[in-house]
Amino acid sequence: MKTQVVIVGAGPSGLLLGQLLGRAGIDTVILERSTREHVLGRIRAGVLERGTVRLLEEAGCADRLHREGQIHHGVELAFDNERLRLDLAALTGGAHVTVYGQTEVTRDLMEARAAAGWPTVFEAADVRIEDAATTRPRVSFEQEGVRHEVACDFVAACDGYHGVGRRSVPAEALRTFERVYPFGWLGLLADAPPAAEELVYANHPRGFALASMRSATRSRYYVQVSLDERVEDWSDDRFYRELRARLPADLAAAVTPSPSIEKSIAPLRSFVAEPMRFGRLFLAGDAAHIVPPTGAKGLNLALGDVHYLTEGFVAHYREGSDAELDAYSARALARVWKAERFSWWMTSVLHRFPDMDAFAQRMQRAEFDHLTAVPSAAVNLAENYVGLPF
Ligand code: RFL
Ligand code: PHB
């Protein structure tokens, strides 16, 4: 087999890259370790920045998003029983975010790829990336006991944090930065009207809580838990009790405790690998960086990388210029570190840390009061939340 760009991973980054390249006339093969159903079964992000929506429009995959996605002009922070609404539209000069699940984004992209007839290999086991430092990289994989090889010009590793892409780069060619937080998020998805019309991020002495949603009839809630918690120990009943204890009283009363359709624990981590390139192997999305979910940035950041990478490949094939590919890592990282900062800050301000003393708690309170009292502080949060330009 031969193609121009091998894309490892059929998550949102890999699929969007495949779509944008395909529409530019560039051939791709996507190799995905899991089944289609498994990829579509993962419940993750829910908040899309305007730039993300624009990229999905460019990919021709935004029709359902525009029909079914919810436009949110505001977001709330809560501190004990006090609530602060940030009017995103007013603070940013008209911007908003769109609530539309990552699962739906992935489904739309998968359907568009299948309709275009561009190849995706699901259940591609033991993917190996070879000769990335040369002009003729090769990617091989195993399927039903047989090893296959694809020769290509470039490899895009869009295979997430646990993927093979970053591990294929020699250790001495990568520098990594990491912060592991001493807690995780226990998330629950349920078919019930959400407690509030907009997202509410709550700081509470019992720990952080988030009231989010997927639609007018589907709620998504999270509570901060310690890393030794097991999801089996959290009945729906226990979850809703804990959630209600952490939300402001009026909001707690509005939670409809319906049976969960998904419940899982995700650890929180900040991580960056630099540079995002080794020879002809490019890293994009979670393969190169992770943010804690508190800023709702992970998916958006991943798709921002794809935008820069697409520009690089298009300039290479259309104009014979590698200047954009050479600039890819630096351009992407400049945006990545801004989102790392915002996600780290939101996480630090909203969570209860095990070693927090009274001073640290007052500092969180002071951040909340500062946001309430100082317009430029609220503008700063809002601009980051709706997404910095790229
Ligand atoms: P993904 O989605 O992990 O996809 C990678 C794909 O690669 C495949 N793969 C391999 N394929 C072949 N060979 C291998 N060796 C492979 N190893 C892995 C995997 O099976 C998978 O299909 O990475 P991608 O595409 O970069 O997308 C990143 C996003 O998924 C991620 O950043 C977001 O989900 C993060 N995130 C959020 N982001 C937001 O922008 N807004 C949010 O509101 C938000 N909420 C969240 C989140 C992530 C969460 N969790 C569970 C981590 C909430 C949660 C709880
Ligand atoms: C979600 O709805 O899953 C969600 C929303 C906002 C976040 C993280 C997750 O910051």
Automatic annotation (TrEMBL):
Signal peptide span:
none
Keywords recorded for this protein, A-Z: Monooxygenase, Oxidoreductase
The alphabetized list of GO BP terms reads: benzoate catabolic process
What top-tier enzyme class does this entry carry? oxidoreductase
Flavoprotein listed as a keyword: no
What Gene Ontology terms describe what this protein does at the molecular function level? 4-hydroxybenzoate 3-monooxygenase activity; FAD binding
Q: Which domain of life is it from?
A: Bacteria
* Domain FAD-binding, chain residue ranges per copy: 2-343
Q: What is its EC number?
A: 1.14.13.2
InterPro entries the UniProt entry points to: FAD-bd, FAD/NAD-bd_sf, HB_mOase, PheA/TfdB_FAD_monoxygenase
Q: Which NCBIfam families does the record match to this protein?
A: pbenz_hydroxyl, PRK08243.1
Stated name of the protein: 4-hydroxybenzoate 3-monooxygenase
Species of origin reads: Aureimonas flava
